[in-house]
Amino acid sequence: MLRFLLVLLAGLFSYADSISVEITPNRHAMVHERYSLSSPGEFVFLASAGVRVEKIQSAGGRPLEISGSGPWFTVRIPPTHAVDLIYEVVPMLPLPRTSGVPMVMPKHAVESVSVTITDFGSGLSRVSVPHLIRHPDSKTWSATFPAVPSHLQLEWETGNAPPAPSAGPAGLFAWNFWGLTGVLVTWTVAYLLWARRQAV
User: Fold this and answer.
1) Dihedrals phi, psi of 142, to nearest 5 degrees
2) Where in the sequence is the domain holding 116, given as residue range(s)?
3) Which of 92-101, 167-176, 186-195 has the lowest mean pLDDT?
4) What is the pTM of this model?
5) Strand arrangement, sheet containing 98-102
6) Whole-angstrom distance, CA of residue 34 vs CA of residue 150
7) Residues 47 and 136 grouped into a single domain
8) 171 shares a domain with 116
């Protein structure tokens, strides 16, 4: 009985809140999150442009229920003494130059969380958000934060930049603005000329 209690206590104390992210050669992010929450309830994540969050499941392989239509999505976690999540973040652009990685965050506050990013051959050059310490081997970044970051922002020296935005609503706005300005100037000049004639 005493041995069982010692093993249980060792497991509880070794289960620190942590997020580990492995970057594959094709720049997919494999995320593994561990939390020692007594009543996890719901987790949330913020949709990020240019990526998809896929295969959210418990470490045992059980798919988790996701609800919401964006930008925030909710992940329902079954009752458990600790949370062990695995999911994949897939960029929509092959080999992107920059990529956001949304974090699945608990709604309950955590005291602190350690974040580690390991590059497995993608050529990752920088983690711009949040600030992580780069280790001498140049393949690992890590830091401890007082709360779970909502996302990570990764950068590479080479890769595909996102396509330039087409002339959509912004282009129409500029066209409408200058058209309206031209009409107003024309009517103002015409009115001033008419008013001057009437005064004579």
Assistant:
1) -155, 160
2) 2-156
3) 167-176
4) 0.71
5) 98-102, 151-156, 124-129
6) 16
7) yes
8) no
